[in-house]
Amino acid sequence: SQTIHQWPATLVQPVGSPLSLECTVEGTSNPNLYWYRQAAGRGLQLLFYSVGIGQISSEVPQNLSASRPQDRQFILSSKKLLLSDSGFYLCGLGTNEKLFFGSGTQLSVL
Amino acid sequence: GQQLNQSPQSMFIQEGEDVSMNCTSSSIFNTWLWYKQDPGEGPVLLIALYKAGELTSNGRLTAQFGITRKDSFLNISASIPSDVGIYFCAGLIWGRNEKLTFGTGTRLTIIP
Fold first, then answer.
1. What spatial distance separates the first Cα and last Cα of chain A, rounded to whole Å?
2. Rounded to 5°, angle at Cα B4 from B1 and B9
């Protein structure tokens, strides 16, 4: 069965610092991968998705970027964090019209 | 774009009660998914529905894909404390990979 590894679980970063969140998956090949953000008490917003290595689609204009250097690795980055980047970030694995989520990273930008 | 209206926003019930929540859309979806999210965790997929009129159960949970394809319902029977959390519906249109449209969530609280 598929497994999604997402880390770190929590992260506190100062404004203006860089960001790198990593997601790796196991038990599948050529998966569709997703990054979602969830504001406190709110729904999920799709940020990026990728259907293959080097293929990234951005859903909303923002301060973040994504990369997929390997088939089972999806990275969310920023060069300079903003206060508004705070939130709960979720990596998603899509397969057969189902989406499964990792355990999430709670990012606090101070 | 599509919007999913999920109701109620919150529910306060006593243990043992049954729960019903629903999602409605302004347009048609081909797949409906229901998730549960505990605090600080990622959403967990509960039930997936693929055909209009489909009724699917997962233990005490039952979900239905509305005939019009514009709505879906989730019922929880005989609620227990571990049912506490936020429930999200999500709709998918074929051909868009797994780019889901999510509802705003229903927060379930069980009153002791």
1. 38
2. 145
- pLDDT tens readout for residues B42-69: 999 999 999 999 999 999 999 999 999 9
Q: Amino acid letter at B55? A: L
Query: From the centroid of its chain, how far is CA B23?
Result: 7
CB B90 within 8 Å of CB B2: no
- Alpha-carbon gap, residue B29 to B57, rounded angstroms: 20
Going by the DSSP 8-state scheme, the letter that residue A80 receives in this structure is S
Q: Read off the tokens for B106.
A: 């229903």
Dump pLDDT digits (tens) for A61-89.
Answer: 778 999 999 999 999 999 999 999 999 99
Interface of A with B in 24-53 (CB under 8 A): 32, 34, 42-44, 46, 49, 51
Quote the CA–CA distance of B98 and A58 in Å, as a whole number: 14
Residue B10, chain A, CB below 8 Å: the answer is no
B91 touches chain A (CB under 8 A): no
* Cβ of residue B23 closer than 8 Å to a chain A Cβ: no
Range B79-102 burial, b when 16+ CB lie within 10 A, else e: beeebebbbbbbbbbeeebbbbbb
Residue B82: half-sphere exposure toward Cβ, Cα within 13 Å: 2
